[in-house]
Amino acid sequence: MKPAKKLLLNTLALTAVSLLMRTIGMSFGVYLSNTIGPEGIGAFELIMSVYTLAVSLAASGVRLSTTRLVVEARSRGTHSDRRVMALCLRYALTLGLISGAVLLGASGWLATTFLRAPEAARALRILAPGLPFLAVSSALSGYFTARRKAARFAATQLLEQLLRIGITICALHVAMPLGVAHAPLALVVGSCTAEVLSTAVAYSLFRAELRGRRGVEAASPLLGRLLAIAVPDAVGSWVRSGLVTAKNLLIPRGLEKTGASSRSALATYGTIQGMVLPVLTFPSAFLGALAALLIPEVAESAALGHRGHIRYVLSRVIHVTMIFSVAVAGVLFFFAEPLGEAIYPCKGTGLYIRLLAPVVPIMYLDMMVDSALKGLGHQLSSMSYNIIDAAMSLFLVWLLIPRLGIAGYCLTFYASELLNFYLSMGKLTKETATGLAFGRSFAGPAAAMVLAGTLARRVTLPLVPAVLMCLALYAALLVALSCVRREDIQWVKSVLGR
Q1: How far apart are CA 303 and CA 68, in angstroms?
Q2: Total domains, the chain
Q3: Is 84 exposed, middle or buried (0-12, 13-18, 19+ CB in 10 A)?
Q4: pLDDT bucket at 317, cuts 50 / 70 / 90
Q5: What distance in Å separates the CA atoms of residue 347 and residue 4, rounded to the nearest whole number?
Q6: What pTM was computed for the model?
Q7: How many CB atoms lie within 10 A of CB 407?
Q8: Residue 480: inside a domain
Q9: Cα–Cα distance measured from residue 446 to residue 322, given in angstroms and rounded to the nearest whole number
Q10: CB-based contacts of 471: which residues, under 8 Å, 6+ apart?
């Protein structure tokens, strides 16, 4: 099978699973908003922001180093998958055990000092035993991604999500009669239990994949190469996670300084973080699979010295990403209120969706650029940009939200995404001579969507037909403006052709 076709088929399979997972997750989010409300979601999001620090210690660098080591070993014929994975799994398990012990021991202090909620310590202690499993799962994910079988691992993630939802619903039935304050505890019980069970299934698939496989073993050391890839990514991720956690904790406190009550501030935080942002990122399921598979594709081409192929793949990926993300941003912007009302029962989500929708193209393209940089071995640069972005966001949250309220949050969100994209895209252009065709990939699609969205909103139609009409007009205008050309269509046909 041709590499391009193999990449596409894996992308389609992984996208289907990812889209199903996002749909299930969004539906579950609606259920939670009805059951525990924005305030309960806000409390859970704050707990998870602290938990993210422990996740960074447990899994940062694991997935990326596993993917690149497997790809490099197979491309050069130096080591078998069995030897590479034995090392990666031991490394992941060690980090997971250390992070679990740290979270378990520091749970009381974290809950009291940072969350200002001593009762949250129990939730953090429940989450701690799942960290070794999470780390091992990250290594397994890296292996299946490198082997172009990410869709197989995605099936275990789907199982994990279904288990999490089922266990959480059962736990909520027990916890809710005791009060909404117990809701976050039910959510973390579901999360930890599902993590353990899904990792066991993923490991079984991995063992079946390796059964009977042998390979060449070289004398060259692997540990040094693993640490060279993992440590910069991990250290950078720890720093960035600390800054992001601090930023998340400051958001509700900053809103309180504007005169909002603690409950109102927590509800606003829960609305944005737990309800609006999932709507903005939901369509990225169509690109998330491609972003994950782009790492081994670029890494393999770089290992073989195929610079021309890298430029070709990246130019196509950037163009497709921009056309898709502009369409998403336009639909979210022009249909924000009916979308918000259709998804969530509480008011106000539509306004936040419209305010943040224009930054979606930058978010989605930055995701692809970040994956390309990691595939090229520039994870240190990518992580340094993320740290700069997180530090600036923390400063702006501290400065703007107490003075401007939610407007300060929106300004911070825009500044963060623009800075990160500017730095990452500049690095990618320098390394690969791949740039953004501004007219064909951005200005043209943006003009087409503005016209399509304006016309569709002037027609009195229900939400779904109106969105479909908008997208149909957008597609026609893309062709009329030469944003989609005959060679683009022929390229897709050549990849899909038998």
Answers
A1: 10
A2: 1
A3: buried
A4: confident
A5: 45
A6: 0.74
A7: 12
A8: no
A9: 9
A10: 327, 331, 452
